[in-house]
């Protein structure tokens, strides 16, 4: 398979590249500022906000499938417009599209979110991810939209945030629940979805919901650190307007995929 990974220099994109190369696929990986380091990946610089450049690259590479992972937290053009440009170009060359979305497009509630629950974003990043999904579905109804949660693993921003909070350099919220997923599990699931005809949104996250503060305690135990220094607060105490409880029900994905999505307690055992 000829695979194009857009955002290959990112945490998830890099893992998708590594697993795809190991499986014997021909892989091209794009980067914006940091070159792709994964062996066996053909690196190509790409600005996803440049629609003509996206189209030119896909026309040249002619991939069988595209895994689209690019985002920038505070940049609508990258997160929303970039996703639309990739979807248009993928459709033009007839490539299968797996688009990475996020639980950030939900506002939060006590009950878990199902795959097809309508986005209710609270902040600009969530709105950008919701707009990206809308664009992708309009351009390519056959694309699969992988809604995931906090991506963990050695080298992840989420684990580093926990370590910073344990050192008193950051704060973890006691009332912000998510369903963390290990980067290797998520990458394997993404690649497993490529040859399928599954379309629309699919929750692919860990089966276990924990607060960020609880995850900090798990990291402390895993690293052998003293949890007494963990700095915590509530979202309200911090004066922020952000989703609190966002639990993704990934039972459908668990039933469809061979890849086992591990819970955070097992990951950090």
Give an overview of the whole structure:
Helix content is 37%, strand content 18%. With 269 residues, it is an alpha/beta fold. The strands form 4 sheets. Strands 3-2-1-4-5-6-11 form a 7-stranded parallel β-sheet, with helices on both faces. Strand 1, helix 1 (11-22) and strand 2 form a beta-alpha-beta unit. 49% of the residues are buried. The model has no long low-confidence stretch (mean pLDDT 96).
Largest sheet: 7 strands, parallel
Got a strand count? 13
Tell me the β content: 15-25%
Q: Distance N terminus to C terminus?
A: 36 Å
- Radius of gyration over all CA atoms, rounded: 18 Å
**Helix residue percentage:** 25-40%
What letter string, H or E per element, gives the SSE order?
EHEEHEHEHEEHEEEHEEHEHH
Oligomer state equals single chain
Put simply, the count of helices is: 9
The overall pLDDT average reads: 96
Structural class: alpha/beta
Overall shape:
globular
Residue runs with pLDDT of under 50 for 5 or more positions: none
Widest sheet: strand ordering: 3-2-1-4-5-6-11
Give the SSE layout.
Blueprint: E1 2-6, H1 11-22, E2 26-31, E3 41-45, H2 51-61, E4 65-68, H3 76-93, E5 96-102, H4 124-139, E6 144-148, E7 151-152, H5 157-166, E8 172-173, E9 177-178, E10 181-182, H6 183-193, E11 200-203, E12 210-211, H7 212-223, E13 232-233, H8 251-256, H9 264-267
Helix pairs in contact: 1-6, 2-3, 3-4, 5-7
């Amino acid at each position: 398979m000829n695979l194009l990974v857009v955002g290959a220099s990112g945490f998830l994109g890099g893992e998708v590249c590594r697993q795809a190369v190991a499986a014997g696929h021909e892989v091209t990986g794009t980067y914006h500022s940091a070159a792709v380091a994964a062996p066996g990946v053909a690196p190509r610089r790409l600005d996803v906000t440049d629609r003509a450049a996206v189209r030119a690259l896909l026309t040249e590479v002619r991939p069988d499938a595209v895994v689209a992972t690019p985002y920038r937290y505070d940049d609508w053009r990258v997160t929303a417009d970039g996703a639309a440009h990739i979807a248009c170009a993928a459709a033009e060359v007839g490539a299968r599209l797996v688009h990475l979305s996020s639980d950030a497009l939900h506002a939060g509630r006590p009950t878990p979110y199902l795959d097809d629950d309508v986005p209710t974003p609270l902040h600009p990043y969530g709105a950008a991810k919701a707009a990206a999904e809308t664009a992708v579905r309009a351009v390519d109804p056959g694309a699969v939209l992988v809604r995931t949660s906090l991506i963990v693993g050695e080298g992840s921003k989420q684990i580093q945030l926990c370590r910073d909070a344990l050192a008193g350099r950051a704060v973890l919220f006691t009332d912000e629940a998510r369903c963390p997923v290990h980067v290797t599990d998520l990458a394997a699931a993404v690649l497993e979805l490529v040859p399928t005809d599954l379309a629309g949104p699919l929750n692919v996250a860990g089966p276990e919901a924990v607060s960020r503060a609880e995850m900090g305690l798990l990291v402390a135990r895993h690293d052998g650190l003293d949890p007494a220094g963990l700095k915590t607060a509530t979202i309200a105490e911090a004066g922020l307007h952000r989703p609190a409880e966002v639990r993704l029900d990934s039972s459908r994905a668990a039933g469809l995929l061979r890849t086992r999505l591990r819970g955070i307690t097992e990951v950090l055992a």
